[in-house]
Amino acid sequence: MSADVKTILLVEDNRGDIRLIQEAFKSTGARCEVVVTRDGMDAMSYLRQEGEYLNVPLPDLVLLDLNLPKKDGREVLAEIKADENLKHLPVVVLTTSLNEEDIVNSYDLHVNCYIAKSRNLQQLFKIVRGIQAFWLETATLPVRS
């Protein structure tokens, strides 16, 4: 991993999941900052650097729940991948849905990876370690703008 701190945008509305995912990333020792938006509208404002997010850098990785208020994750994914300024961002769907239609539709929308969240704490930490190891250490990510 490069010496710089990676930014992860976690788009998640469940406070418990947010806390657990943040703790899981801390436990990996990864040099990363987990920024949270709690609905799809806020996520798109962040990514488009609008309003309160005017000067934020784009994240290195987006972790996206599908079931969100205001604008669901499916819509957010479609908007990211259709936007010339955002489509290069790696997006990992991290959701509780094992619905085959959600999985196929996410890949049709060019998601980079689809992962089902576990309610088992040990398994969730293992999932986050896998995300950290692959996306923050192994994969070569596009340069942030």
Quick recap of the structure?
With 145 residues, this protein is α/β, with parallel strands linked by helices. It is 41% helix and 17% strand. It has helices at 15-28, 40-47, 73-82, 100-108, 121-138; strands spanning 6-11, 32-37, 61-64, 91-95, 113-116.
Please explain how this structure is put together.
The protein has 145 residues and is α/β, with parallel strands linked by helices. The chain has one domain: Rossmann fold. The protein is 41% helix and 17% strand. The protein contains five helices and five strands. The protein has a five-stranded parallel beta sheet with strand order 2-1-3-4-5, sandwiched between helices. It is globular. The model has no long low-confidence stretch (mean pLDDT 91).
Layout of SSEs?
Blueprint: E1 6-11, H1 15-28, E2 32-37, H2 40-47, E3 61-64, H3 73-82, E4 91-95, H4 100-108, E5 113-116, H5 121-138
Parallel strand pairs: 1-2, 1-3, 3-4, 4-5
Helix pairs in contact: 1-5, 2-3
Q: What is the number of beta strands?
A: 5
**Counting H and I runs of at least 4 residues, what is the number of helices?**
5
Q: What value does the average pLDDT take?
A: 91
- The CATH architecture name reads 3-Layer(aba) Sandwich
Largest sheet: 5 strands, parallel
End-to-end distance? 19 Å
What is the share of helical residues?
Answer: 40-55%
Query: What integer value in Å does the Rg equal?
Result: 14 Å
Total domain count: 1
**What low-confidence regions span 5 or more consecutive residues with pLDDT below 50?**
none
Shape: globular
Trace the largest sheet across and list its strands.
2-1-3-4-5
